[in-house]
Design a protein that fits this description.
Keywords: Oxidoreductase. The chain is built from 16 helices and eight strands. By secondary structure, the protein is of the alpha/beta class.
Length: 362
């Protein structure tokens, strides 16, 4: 038996927000816009949302203070504004950080939760969420999870519940045209890791595999172009692949790459996608031994000849190295082992294996 749940209504394509106001009109008469400080203003996404809201006579307030790897403090501050303003829905505009923050803010507008309950629930309700991605990587516009920095746990952790599936998502690839080369690479590799991890997870299903293969096909077609100027068509392929990969992990969750990557982001300052990229080759090495048939399909879909070429590509795109002390290796291994990411991984993950992988990153 398997289940499949995807309650988000997705609008995809250039100018999709302007063409879909009727769907927004059903959500209420006052919105909280959640963004970072700059990019949503520069790439036109915030203005596109505002234009439609004002045409519909929907009032709005904006919270534009979401940082990378959003904190509990930030989402609480935004939710307090949402409550005081009596907003009826949340519009999260940006990359993974604003979208994840917006989801949690929608929960906090309707639930009284301490810092432990925030990550565990139970949750009673959430305001409707509208997601507007402006990078092609996280897939948060179609998932039921949001990642926050949790200082109590000493790492990044997930808030996950079907209540935070976005009600509507507007994926317009035009908003990604001005994304920098480094962010484009980081987010694309994040999307590839979602598709690959979901494809090989213990929790994979026949339905999620269909989406994963389609995601890898589109993402793989653009891997050789990463690191240089990209056309709109290339940006469209990346966003389409990213959204499909998000649909995958909404069903399967993520695996060891993500579980090991979070401490690298929290303690070593690596971006999420870059942490995934430097872990990816060792992960695929072990998966090649565990699920060789699926790995062969992955190489075909990503249009690489095998592990050696894939490793070289990752090192070309992400030449970073991380030298960890033995104390850090032990700490990061201890943080990784209890995670669902380990439970979802299709080979038996031991602390010795995790420590070994961390030791190879330098």
């Amino acid at each position: 038996m398997f289940t499949y749940e995807m309650p988000t209504t997705l609008f995809f394509g250039r100018d999709c927000i302007a063409q879909s106001g009727a769907a927004l009109a059903r959500l209420g008469k006052k919105a909280l816009l959640v963004t970072g400080r700059h990019s949503a203003k520069v790439n036109g996404s915030q203005q596109a949302v505002v234009d439609v809201l004002e045409a519909l006579h929907i009032s709005w307030v904006v919270f534009d203070e979401v940082e990378s790897n959003p904190s509990i403090e930030t989402v609480r501050r935004a939710a307090a504004i949402g409550r005081a303003e009596q907003v009826e829905f949340v519009v999260a505009i940006g990359g993974g950080s604003p979208m994840d923050a917006g989801k949690v803010i929608a929960l906090l507008c309707t639930n009284e939760l301490d810092d432990t309950q925030l990550f565990t629930g139970p949750y009673n309700n959430a305001l409707p969420i509208v997601a507007v991605p402006t990078t092609a990587g996280t897939g948060s516009e179609v998932t039921k999870a949001a990642i926050l920095t949790n200082p109590h746990a000493g790492t990044k952790q997930s808030v996950a519940d079907p209540l935070i599936f976005p009600t509507l998502s507007f994926a317009d690839p035009a908003f990604t045209l001005g994304v920098s080369e480094s962010v484009t690479v980081d987010t694309a590799i994040d999307a590839v890791s979602h598709a690959v991890e979901g494809y090989m997870a213990r929790t994979a299903t026949p339905v999620s595999d269909v989406w994963a293969e389609e995601a890898m096909r589109f993402l793989g077609s653009q891997l050789p172009a990463l690191g240089g100027p990209l056309t709109y068509d290339a940006r469209e392929d990346l966003m389409y692949g990213s959204t499909l990969a998000g649909i995958v992990i909404a069903q399967t969750g993520t695996t060891l790459i993500h579980g090991m990557g979070y401490p690298l982001t929290y303690y070593k300052g690596l971006t999420h996608g870059r942490a995934n990229g430097i872990l990816f080759p060792q992960y695929m090495k072990y998966m090649s031994e565990t699920m060789p048939d699926k790995v062969d399909t992955i190489w075909e879909l990503l249009d690489v000849s095998g592990l050696a070429e894939f490793t070289a590509l990752m090192k070309q795109l992400m030449p970073d190295t991380v030298v960890l002390t033995q104390e850090e290796i032990d700490q990061f291994t201890k943080l990784t082992m209890p995670t669902k990411a380990v439970q979802h991984t299709s080979y038996d993950v031991t602390a010795e294996l995790v420590a070994h992988i961390y030791g190879t990153l330098g």
